[in-house]
Structure formats: structure tokens, C-alpha cells
Amino acid sequence: MSELLTPLLLAVLAIVDAGFSGYRSAAGTSALLRKDAYYRRAIRHGLRCGAIACALVAGILGVLFACAATEQVWSDLLGGAGVLVWSFGVYATLVLLGLGVWFVAEADLRTLASVLVLGPFTLIRPLWIAATCAVAALGATTWLGGFAPLLAGVVQLAIEPWLRRAWAVGGARRR
Amino acid sequence: MSALLEISDLIVDCDPETGERRDVLRAEVVARLRASGQHRAARLVLRWPATDGVLDRAHCDVVLLRAHVEMQRLSEEFLQGDRMRLLLEPMLAALRAGGVRAPYRVLDIGCGLGYVVRALAASGGLGRDVELLGCDLNRALVDRAEALAREERLDCRFVRGDAFRLEAPAHIYLSSNALHHFHGAALTQFFAQQRSACGFLHYDVQPSPFSALGAWLFHRSRMRKPLARLDGCVSAARAHAAATLLAAARRADGPLVGTFDAARSFLSVILRPMQCVVGVQRELAPAFLRELGPLARRLGELA
Fold it and tell me: Are B241 and B208 in contact (CB under 8 A)?
């Protein structure tokens, strides 16, 4: 059970991150004041893409693992997933804390959350993902153990530009 | 090297008398940007379509509109509508207490897409005796602001033109991120034209050692349109210090003037990235300060 918990947590983090990517792809594209429904749709779109991306990565890794299944490879995969879960977990916790403050606090503290957490963390997100995946890949002792975090990172980083393009094409219609 | 320039100030030129749009030469814009050392901005404009060297108006409008939509995020995230309401409500209460005849006309100068006016209209609570109006020289922005207000059934209006040449003058003038567009004599003139108003509230970026970094961080992480990124960073760099604004406003010899949220400490710079120049006629000042309540502590001396 615990062996499945790590990949499961990683999938949850990846899907939530894709949801945020969905939000960002729609942010700044509508000047209306009431945009709740617009953003909800964008977030749902991001979550769906995140789930599909997770299934895609799991599928590719599953096929490759089936071809080269050894205990060492499995241990490498779990080890790499563990590194990703820890790093992305820390990132997600900090961002969610910043968001929590933004949603409940008064104007000045909201600004503080925005200036110190939400802005900088949005900016460093690609670097954080790339660095974490590189560390996880470098720690692997098998080629598949090294390939898996790189694949996951590339797919996760590709989601936002893809969502942005998709929203730019269809977003105006859905607004 | 001359002072920094915003692309959006250069690519649209309107006759101040007639409002008629005038041709803008691409080479001239590019040369001015290069002369001020803004080579990235110059390269961006160089890529825009032009016929016989004249920038394509439709393209400029589309680019401007998209950048303004994106830049609205700044106002949304920093709750610019709420910040304005915080000061506008006490000022309106002071007008009522001072016996100024309603309806009270509140005019946003250089309103762009009218975010602040629309946010004030959406929040309600200002009173039925308040008329909310936005004004901008750019017709494309005004038309979009009007359309947005209509779509959300907001009780406010937008007009194209010079804010100081409208049929009826405003009781209270507002602006957000407009002050840094005026320098020297033009800044004093800006305040002088509001001499007879009951009051004014002009928000702009708070200059500080962190504002350039903060603006870069914000625009880099939030904006995708090159125009929004470039102009956003430049506008923070062009922001006036509180002392400059106060000196210009006081030279204009109008209402009593003070600054709200002008930086007094390291923390206040981080917490309050915007400052407001507040002007209120002498006879309305006591009521305004009373209505402000504890917020009066954040207001510098009115003089």
C-alpha cells in the first residue's frame, strides 16, 4: 500500500498543479469583474489535462517497466517519485499558505502574500520543477529510474504553454 | 540618455482639441525609444505593421486593449477598487456633511478599461447621489470600458475626451497609475486643473528601492503580452516620490493636499505598493478627517 502512496501523491500534486496552470492560462484574458465561472472552467480544463498527462506518463513508464522489470528499477522509480513528492509538497504547501492568506486576510496582508509568495513562486515554478526532476534523475542508478522524473518534468512543464494556446483559441468563445 | 518612455504613450496620438486620431510614424517611435536606451521596446515596435511608415491604428488598438486587459490583474490583485473606496466614501460623506449639492460627480481620469470605476459601481454602497464617470483620450479603451460595464449592468459611464473639458466639472477626481505620465510643469498643471474640485484621490505606484524589482517580478510572473511587461516595469520606474507629488499639488494652489500610505518604513513599502495623493477643500477637510476615522493615521499632513 505504502509503495503506491508515493506515486498516488505525486499524481495528485501534478493534477493540482495543472489546475493552477489552467487558471493562469485564463488569467489576464478577460476584463470583466465577475470571472468566477470563467476561472472555474479554466481550472477544470487544467485538471482534466493534468489527469490525462498523468495517465500518459504512467502508461509510457508502465510499458517501459514491463520491458525492463527488475527490483532495482522499481526501487529507483519509487525513490525518484519520493524526491518529487517531497520537493513539490514543500512548494505546494508554501503556495497554498500564501493563497490562504490572500483569500482571508485584509488588503495589506493580501498584498504581502502576493508580493512575497504568489508572484515569486509563480516565477520560479519552472525552475523548481526542472531542478527537482534533475536531482531525482541524477540519484537514479538505472536508465529508467533516471528517465522517469525527466519525462514527468517535461510533460508537466509542457502543460501550461499548451493550455495557454488552447485557451487563447477557445477562451474568448467560452467567455 | 533621456527619461524612460512607455510605448503606449507613444503609439497613440490624439488631437487634444478635437480628439481626432493623428498618424504616428513608426520610425519616430523607434528612434525615441532607442534614444532613451529602451532597445527591447524599440525592437517590439519595429515588428508592428505600418503603411508608408505610419503605424497601423487597428493593430495598435488591439495590442493596447490586450495589454490593458492583462494589466487589470495588477489592479485586481492589489485590490485597487477597495483601496479607492476606502478614501472615496469618507470624501463623499464630507461633501454631504458640508452641504455640497448632489448629485456628486466622481470622475476617473485616464480610466483605461475603467476597472476602478466599474469596481466602485459593482461594490455599490456609494449612494444613489453619486454619478460614476470614467474618461480617457483613447476611444478604443473607452468603448471597451463602456461595453464591459453594459455587460455586467453596472451603473457607470465612460466618455472619450479631456477630463477637464467635459460639459460639467467633477466634484471628485480620481486616477490610478496616471500620475507618472506627467512630469515637471505638466504635473503641476494636472493638479491646477482640479483647483476648484471638492477633492481628488490619485493613486500611483510607491517608489522605493524595491519597486523596480517588485514591478519586474510582478510583470514577469503575471503578464505575457510584451507591451504589458515592458510598460509595466517602466511605469514603476517613472513613479514620483511623495515629496514631488506634494510639491506639485501644492504649487497648484488648490485644495489642501496630503499623501495616504506614503512609505514611512520598510514594512509599509512591502505592504502598500501604492500611495495616494489626497486633496480636499479646506472647508471639507475637518469632516473628511472625521469620516476617515482610524485611517486618518495613514494620511500625512493636509496642507
Answer: no
Cα–Cα distance between B158 and A113 in angstroms, integer?
33
| A105 shares contact with chain B (CB less than 8 Å) | no
CB-based contact B152 A27, cutoff 8 Å: no
Model pLDDT, residue B2:
61
C-beta atoms of B82 and A164 within 8 A:
no
Q: Which domains does chain B have, with CATH numbers?
A: 7-65 (no CATH), 68-298 (3.40.50.150)
Of the candidates B72, B118, B271, the beta carbon closest to that of A108 is on B271
Separation between Cα atoms, residue B292 and residue B277, nearest integer Å: 15
Q: Cell digits for B1?
A: 540618455
Residue A89 Cα to chain centre, angstroms: 11
User: What DSSP state is assigned to residue B299?
Assistant: B
Residues of A in contact with B118 (CB under 8 A): 33
Q: Is B113 on the interface with A (CB under 8 A)?
A: yes
Q: What is the ipTM of this complex?
A: 0.88
User: Over the stretch A79-131, which tens digit does the pLDDT of each residue have?
Assistant: 999 999 999 999 999 999 999 998 888 877 888 888 888 889 999 999 999 99
